[in-house]
Design a protein that fits this description.
This protein is mostly beta strands and 119 residues long. It has no helices and eleven strands. It has strands at residues 3-7, 10-12, 18-25, 33-39, 46-51, 58-60, 68-73, 78-83, 92-99, 108-109, 113-117. The strands form two sheets. Strands 2, 4, 5, 6, 9, 10 and 11 form a seven-stranded mixed beta sheet that branches. Strands 1-3-8-7 form a four-stranded antiparallel beta sheet, with no helix packed on it. Strand 4 (33-39) and strand 5 (46-51) form a beta hairpin. The termini are far apart. The mean pLDDT is 95.
């Protein structure tokens, strides 16, 4: 079965950190750009970050620049999202998606992992 599985979410206090993982099953991630997205209750899905197939091109949403870092380890078939200096407004379900390139549409996506930032 071809799928992406996110992990690493949880409850964290403002100013804290989390690292999310996006692992592929049934296919190799190195054939795809990988994007992280989030959706908070009552809000539209927001693109957070995207990394090209070999990591040469990375882009971030303005809301997370300087706080979040996307990276990939193709040998482990995994993409990461390191989130630092978390704010309550970062609370959302975070998803990863595989695309031919960052500007293309999703081909595969996961079920998401909940991130809650609260004191």
């Amino acid at each position: 079965q071809l799928q992406l599985v996110e992990s690493g979410g949880g409850l964290v206090q403002p100013g804290g950190s989390l690292r999310l993982s996006c692992a592929a099953s049934g296919f190799t991630l190195d054939a795809y750009a990988i994007g992280w997205f989030r959706q908070a209750p009552g809000k539209e899905r927001e693109g957070v970050a995207c990394i090209s197939r070999v990591g040469g091109s990375i882009n971030y949403a303005d809301s997370v620049k300087g706080r979040f870092t996307i990276s990939r380890d193709n040998a482990k078939n995994t993409v990461y999202l390191q989130m630092n200096s978390l704010k309550p407004e970062d609370t959302a379900v975070y998803y990863c998606a595989a695309r031919p390139r960052c500007s293309a549409r999703d081909v595969y996506w996961g079920q998401g992992t909940q991130v809650t930032v609260s004191s």
